[in-house]
Structures are given as C-alpha cells and as structure tokens.
Amino acid sequence: MTVVYKLNVFKDPEQLNQNVFAAQYAVRGPLAVRAEELRAQLKEKPDSLPFTEIINANIGNPHQMGQIPLTFIRQVLALCQYPALIENAEITQKLFPSDAIARAKELLEETGGIGAYSSSQGVPLVRRDVARFIEERDGFPSDPNHIFLTTGATQAVRMMINLLIARPYHGILLPIPQYPLYTASMALYGGRTVPYYLNEETNWSVSVEELQRAYDAGTAEGTEIRAVVFINPGNPTGSCLNEKAIEDILGFAKRNGVIVIADEVYQANVYDLPFVSFKKVLSRLQTENPNDAWDKVSLISIHSVSKGQLGECGQRGGYMEVTNIPEAAFKQIYKLASIDVCPPVAGQFIVDILVRPPKLGDPSHDLYHKQIKDVHEQLFKQCRQLHSALSSMKYVKCQEPRGAMYLHPRIFFPKKLIETAKAQGAEPDELYCMELLESTGICILPGSGFGQKENEFHIRTTFLAQGEEYLKHYVAGHNKIMEKYE
Ligand SMILES: Cc1ncc(COP(=O)(O)O)c(C=O)c1O
C-alpha cells in the first residue's frame, strides 16, 4: 500500500514568519551557545581546555553567578508551594518565622493556591501593594487598577510593542546601545527601530536634541513614531537619569505626541545617584501645571523581580504601571494580558515581597534588610573591581558606572584585528569576544549586539562574577589578544 503524505511547511523555512528569522538576541546568541559547549567539554574532559571554568559575564542572571536568594522570599514560597506545612504547626513554627507563615497564609487565601490561575491583570492584593510601594517611593498617588503584574519585564515590553506596531511604517525610538529585547521585539512585530544615540563621553547621557534629531530623521523617512524607550538605570551602559533630564525628556514626548516606555528594572541597582522614576516626575509636572497637558503624556513604567538585590530571574515576576491611558486602549492592554492567561503566581508572590518587605518589628525584618544591604555592597564592590581591571587594560576606555549590573567599555582595536574579523565575515568585537571565551572561559558580549556607532566597538560585561581571580585571567587574556594583532 502506498503511504500518502504531504510535507509540511517546516520543510521550507523561507515559508515561515521571516520576522522571527530577522530577530536577534545577542544575550543568548552564538557566544552563549559556545560557552555552553565549552562547559560540557570541561565536565567531560576537565584538562582539555586552558581554563577550568566558564564565567558567564554575558547575562544579568545573579543566582547563576552565586548570589544567594533572600531567605524570607524562599520561606514564603516554600510554604505556598507546600501548604500542608502550614497545617503542621509544630514543624512550621520551628522552621519558619511567624511573618513568613502569616504572609504565605494571606497570599494563599487571596488566590486559592499557587497552582491556580490568577486574574489576568494579577492578584488584586499584590497590585494594591505595588500601588502603595509606588506611592511611598514617589510621593504621588498610584491606582492598583493601573498596575498589571507581568511575566518578568519581558512580557510588558512585548505586549506594548505588539500593541503599538500596527503597520510596517510604525516605529519606536530606541536608545543605542540598548538591551536587545527591544530590537528583537521590533523585528518580531515588524516595526521600525528608530535609533537615538546615548552620549558616551558624558556617561551615556540622553539629550533632547539627539531625541529630536532622531525623531525628525525617522519622520522624514516616512516612519510614524509612536513611542520612545528609556532604560534607566541603563543596560548596557550603567547610566542613571536625574530629575531634570527626565523632565526634559517628558517635554520632548509631550511636544511630539510619543508614548514613553520607562524600563526601570534596575531601580534598586544604583550606586551614587538616587533613582528617580519617570512616574514621579510626570506626576509632579501634572500636579504643578494642571493646564499644561501633561496628562496627555502616556507612560508605561516597568519593573521586575529579576534584578535589584532579589535576582529571581527564573521566577518570572514583574509589573507595569500604565499612566494616562485612555479607556479604549486600556481595554486592549487588558485583552493582551488575558490572552497570556496570567503571569506565574509564584512570580506574583515575589513581587508582593519586593514591594512589601518585612517591616520594622517583624521577625524577618533585620535579616531581610541585612541580606539586601550585603548583596548591594557586594555588587558595588564587584563593579569597582571590574572597572579598575578594565581601566588597566590597553586600548580600553570605560565610563564610570552609576547603576545596573553592567560595564560597557569602548575598545580601540588594532587595525589587524579589524581586518581579520572582516575577512572572516565577523564583527571585530565578536571576534574579540570569541577569542576571549576560547582562551579564558570568560563569556562577555560584543557591543554590536546592543548597537553602536559605525566604526566604534564596545564589549558588554556583567559584574556579577565574584572574586578577583577571574579578573587576572581576563586582563591577561585581553592583553594576549591585543598583542597578537598589534
Ligand atoms: C533593561 C532590561 N529590561 C528587561 C529585562 C527583562 O527582565 P525580566 O527577567 O524581568 O524579563 C532585562 C533583563 O536583563 C533588562 O536588562
């Protein structure tokens, strides 16, 4: 009997959605893949490589790099995952502080359990706590109905880009350099990225002149610019915006009628300047100048449990606050959230702890805040150590970091390295990063994955790796590559 079959569309990838082919995500690109291969090789044949471990400085993934989860978070989650523990008072009271038990009970009662879908916008109690946190942080009101709990910050970004890009000529202003989630999402949803450049010489600052130049250039090319993204504190730059800069930026958004997307996932990772939220500045402008149409500026503010001192990347918790969004558009944001059903409930519970940590007098208060302080200090120490190692390297110039988890130095490659890369069809910074990985096991990323000006080269590295030993290998490996091409 002849078997009848027809080949499906996977036989011919060109027939698939080409937007997916176009999307690039350097953070998990070829260098990360190669690092995993080398890790597997080390496990099988420990002596086969010139190094003994892989240092993943390519991604802001703190627990992977040895950062310890905060005790209170894991105690509450443990009880929520296995509520039978709560029933057994004898055991539970020996192992868990009373405030962790109380929080777990409260969250379980509110939701019907960690294994149940929550409402699409997120658990109401958690949204109420997020709104209170924002009010205390900014000194202006926040409405729980304007909070969406999300699957990390990523879902918030994807939802907004999905909603805003309706035609191929629609565009969004993105900072260069940027976090590649943005360019990847623009590619996926078929919109146009309109780049505005951050000024490296002034610590990667944003200028309104540059924003307007980029807006005018994009518009002149026929792009309808709908929104502008700011990452503050910056990934990959580590820069921080002050209140005046944010006010100027909001003025730009108002004049040009563009929606502001403020990615503030690193708001707790600041080292010398205080963090100022876009929401606070917009609320102040609205209050002080009620007739100046500040309420026409729509703002999407994004936060996450993946960063700060929690580092709970794998739990996928986050939130966005939407400000000045007309009802009809709000309903469509709600619909997008409901199509995703709901964010992981465990992630939502962590959001609750992020915004409502144990308070003074609670049994877990001292330990929680000590752990937060220790992680913060440790990260800052690692940041200084890496900055000083990079500053000692030949051909490297690194701006002073102000926040986030990354350094993004410029590298002035010898001509021979640039020519060798071009001959191989690679970017010079890609070639450099690959050679560094192969010779030292240190995985960093090329600036080309984040965007940079033509003929400029950068590398992006996290400062999450602990200790100074790896920095010695880093400096030596760097010098060797440079000497090879000098
Ligand atoms: C600026 C920025 N936004 C968003 C994200 C995504 O984070 P999440 O794990 O919350 O999805 C990251 C992750 O590194 C980031 O750096």
TrEMBL record:
Cofactor(s) for this UniProt protein: pyridoxal 5'-phosphate
GO MF annotations, alphabetized: pyridoxal phosphate binding; transaminase activity
Xref: Pfam families: Aminotran_1_2
Keyword hit for Plastid: no
All copies of domain Aminotransferase class I/classII large, residue ranges: 97-468
BP term (GO), one: L-alanine catabolic process
Origin: domain of life: Eukaryota
Keyword set, alphabetical order: Aminotransferase, Pyridoxal phosphate, Transferase
CDD domains: AAT_like
Protein family: Belongs to the class-I pyridoxal-phosphate-dependent aminotransferase family. Alanine aminotransferase subfamily.
Subunit structure: Homodimer.
PANTHER family referenced in this protein's UniProt entry, alphabetically: ALANINE AMINOTRANSFERASE, ALANINE TRANSAMINASE
Protein name (Swiss-Prot/TrEMBL): Glutamate pyruvate transaminase
